[in-house]
Amino acid sequence: MTSLRPLVAALLSLPLAACGAGTVVPRTGTMPPVGPPASAFSKQGPLMGSDAGALTRLFGTPRLDIRETTVRKLQFANGRCVLDAYLYAPAPGKEPVVTHVDARTPTGSDVDPAACATALRTK
User: Fold this and answer.
1) Considering the domain 34-122 in this protein, what is its CATH number?
2) What percent of the chain has pLDDT over 70?
C-alpha cells in the first residue's frame, strides 16, 4: 500500500501543474490607458466632443450624473425622451467629452439621439 502513495501524489499534482503553465509578462512600468480614447468611437453627432458644461447649458441639470473611474454618464430627460451621454477623457488629465450617446422614449424604445436632443432643448 505504501508503494502506491508516491504514484497517487504524482497523479493528484498533475491538474495543479497545469495552473502554473503560461507566460509571465514583465512589467514595463507604464500604466494601461484609463479608458477608450475619444477617437475610438466613430459615430458622429451634434453632441460628440461636448463637455459636461456644454451639455448642462443645453439641457439643464442632468437627472443622473454617474462618475466611474474611466467614464462619466450624464442622463437628461423631459417625459418625451431620455438621453444618456457617455464622457471619456481624450487623454490623461484632459476634460472628459461625449464619445457615445443613447436615446430612448420613457418606455424604452430607441429614438434618434439628435431628435431627442432637440426635444430636450424645447422642454
Assistant:
1) 3.30.1450
2) 63
